[in-house]
């Protein structure tokens, strides 16, 4: 390169900062632009690496002369700067696409509307315990690009969102996992389910017969979507509703995994560290990945039995006067809340609400009717929750802080009940993010 190619990175969070450091290492001229304020952690990283950046603005002249733009998954296609970049014909890619060019490591890519984080963490846990040299990245952990720049892993387990997939073109998943597809983020897909399904199914792109695709055979949207695609990769489905010759299925409360030319893997679901129906699916998906990599059954069984789940996802946050408190703050969509309610075995006081992404609450009505005795709203605008559930529960209360929500939920609950924070909404109206919401919830429980 006589003249160094110029790359612009939009968004200076975990992924943007990592992409900037990798781009610089690969010999590009780099400029980082963030329309909001940049977190001090990332500012320090950029400054230490001598990477120029701007915050609280986008200087068009500096951006529109780029050869390529790497954009943060959180920036929608519809914002003016992206429209202007595309109008000029400048390619826009994701950090994952960019980092994938500079590593020979094999990738296990996990996507789906729900269960991605849990399945990604579990898969990483199984591989690491089996002694593989493995990194964890994507929507979780340290940025993929930063790890490609600074580490030498043989394998990566990547949690991939549909927003990341939208900006991935040449990238290939050596093992692709699609857990499920349910309506989420439809505001980013013109409220068209088919567009969202196609986005998720980009996990298949560039796969060859030497690659593997793992999916849920019980998920109707996935099955409907796959009818439109020709799959090149070797396919392993998983199901808890029917027995399968190849893949994973449930029989007599045991997970069975069968792949060609390998010993069967069998494990009782009572031994799994992750309990609940949705976690049987997550464990099956991770188990198939482990068997594809020919890990020892004993090692897989041990890892599946001792795994600790991630914070803010159906996390047990305390028990007071016989009332259990569950922190599921990571449930930012209806389907996550559906899963949470579905896994409850007691009466529930449900804490719901926040920034609603076009939620259709009808999906929750049956579960609310059968399991929920009261709803505590935690958000600035709770009208849609009242409208949806006023006929299903006797008590719906508005609150405007985690402390207030916990106090009221505690008084509405009785011994043997569960207070469940599973908001079905984003948190930005009252909190910094879902972690902040979950942490405030946990702090409030300690104050009771």
Automatic annotation (TrEMBL):
Residues 312-425 form the Mur ligase C-terminal domain. Residues 110-289 form the Mur ligase central domain. It catalyses: UDP-N-acetyl-alpha-D-muramoyl-L-alanine + D-glutamate + ATP = UDP-N-acetyl-alpha-D-muramoyl-L-alanyl-D-glutamate + ADP + phosphate + H(+). Its main location: cytoplasm. Gene3D superfamilies: Mur ligase, C-terminal domain (3.90.190.20), Mur-like, catalytic domain (3.40.1190.10), NAD(P)-binding Rossmann-like Domain (3.40.50.720). One of its GO terms (molecular function) is UDP-N-acetylmuramoylalanine-D-glutamate ligase activity. InterPro entries: Mur-like_cat_sf, Mur_ligase_C, Mur_ligase_C_dom_sf, Mur_ligase_cen, MurD. Its EC number is 6.3.2.9. Pathway: Cell wall biogenesis; peptidoglycan biosynthesis. It comes from the Bacteria. Pfam families: Mur_ligase_C, Mur_ligase_M, MurD-like_N. Keywords: ATP-binding, Cell cycle, Cell division, Cell shape, Cell wall biogenesis/degradation, Cytoplasm, Ligase, Nucleotide-binding, Peptidoglycan synthesis. ATP binds at residues 112-118. It is found in: Cytoplasm. Belongs to the MurCDEF family. NCBIfam families: murD. Cell wall formation. Catalyzes the addition of glutamate to the nucleotide precursor UDP-N-acetylmuramoyl-L-alanine (UMA). This is UDP-N-acetylmuramoylalanine--D-glutamate ligase. It comes from Paradesertivirga mongoliensis. The gene is murD.
